[in-house]
Design brief:
Two copies of one chain form a homodimer. With 142 residues, chain A is an alpha+beta fold. The first copy, chain A, contains three helices and seven strands, in the order E-H-H-E-E-E-E-H-E-E. In chain A, strands 2-3-4-5-1-6 form a six-stranded antiparallel sheet, covered by helices on one side. In chain A, helix 2 runs antiparallel to helix 3. Chains A and B meet through strand 1, helix 2, strand 2, strand 3 and strand 4 of A and strand 1, helix 2, strand 2, strand 3 and strand 4 of B. Strand 2 of chain A pairs antiparallel with strand 7 of chain B, so a sheet runs across the interface.
C-alpha cells in the first residue's frame, strides 16, 4: 500500500501566548515553515479573531499547512499535510515548535490516500512548479 | 479532559472523477457543507492544478474545512476541523460523501486541544458572530 500524502497533526502546548495572538507573527512563521520544508506556497489566508486567536492556512502546491491558536490556553493546533517526497513536514514541525516556544508537544502522523498500486508510480499533484514566482495554475478562484 | 476542537479526517474513495476535477463543483460543495453544518464562512480559497486535482480550504469561524482531490484515483482527502458545540462536522461529511458519489469512505475523528480544565468552561473562538454577512474580524490579512 502506497499513500498519496501524509499529515502531521501537531498539538503545541505551553506556547508563548503573545506570539499566538499575533496574526503577523503566526503568518510569518507558518510561511517560513513552508519554505523550510521545501513546499511551494500558492496562497496564504490568516485572520485574527475577536477577542483573541488566530486561524490561518498556507495552501501549498503539495497540500496545506493550517493553524488555529488559543492564546488564552497557550495552545495551537497545527496540521502539516504534504504529498510527494521532496517536502519534509517534520522540518516545518521543528521550526514551529521553536518559533512558538512550545514546551509540550504531541504529534500524530497519518497516511492519506493509501492505495494498492504496486508497481506503478503514484502521481503527485504539483510536479510542474519550481518556485512561488513561476507557479502556474490553470485556474484559481478565491 | 475537555477538548477545544474536533477534527474528522475523511478518506473518500471511488468518487466521481469529473466532480473531483471541477474547481467550481468542489468549491460549491465544500461551501455548502459548511453551511449545512452551521459553520460561519470567513474565506474560501480553491485552486485547480495542472494537469488535474483541486485543493481548497474553507476557513470558518469555527476552524476550517480542507480538501485535496486526485481525480485520476477518484480519491479526495477531506479535513473537517471544528470547535464549539453548534457546528456538526458529521453533517458536512454526509453531504460531501453524497456529493462526491463516494462508494467507499474511511473516517477518523480526533480531539484537538485536550485539556484538564474541569469546572471551567472552555472558550471557543467564534462566539461573537451570527452570519457571514455580519462577521466582524478585528484584522485580516491575505
Amino acid at each position: 500500500m502506497q499513500a498519496l500524502g501524509r499529515q502531521i497533526l501537531a498539538e503545541f502546548f505551553h506556547c508563548d501566548g503573545q506570539i499566538l495572538n499575533s496574526v503577523d507573527a503566526v503568518k510569518m512563521f507558518m510561511q517560513e515553515a513552508a519554505a523550510i520544508s521545501q513546499a511551494h506556497i500558492v496562497q496564504s489566508v490568516f485572520h485574527l479573531f475577536n477577542p483573541h486567536g488566530v486561524s490561518g492556512v498556507v495552501v501549498i502546491a503539495e497540500s496545506h499547512f493550517a493553524i488555529h491558536t488559543w492564546p488564552e490556553y497557550r495552545y495551537a493546533a497545527v496540521d502539516l499535510f504534504t504529498c510527494g517526497e521532496q517536502v519534509d513536514p517534520w522540518k516545518a514541525f521543528e521550526f514551529l515548535k521553536t518559533s512558538f516556544k512550545a514546551n509540550k508537544v504531541m504529534t500524530m502522523e497519518i497516511k492519506r490516500g493509501q492505495m494498492d498500486v504496486k508497481g506503478t508510480e503514484l502521481h503527485y499533484k504539483p510536479p510542474l512548479i519550481k518556485t512561488n514566482k513561476d507557479l502556474v495554475l490553470t485556474e484559481a478562484s478565491a
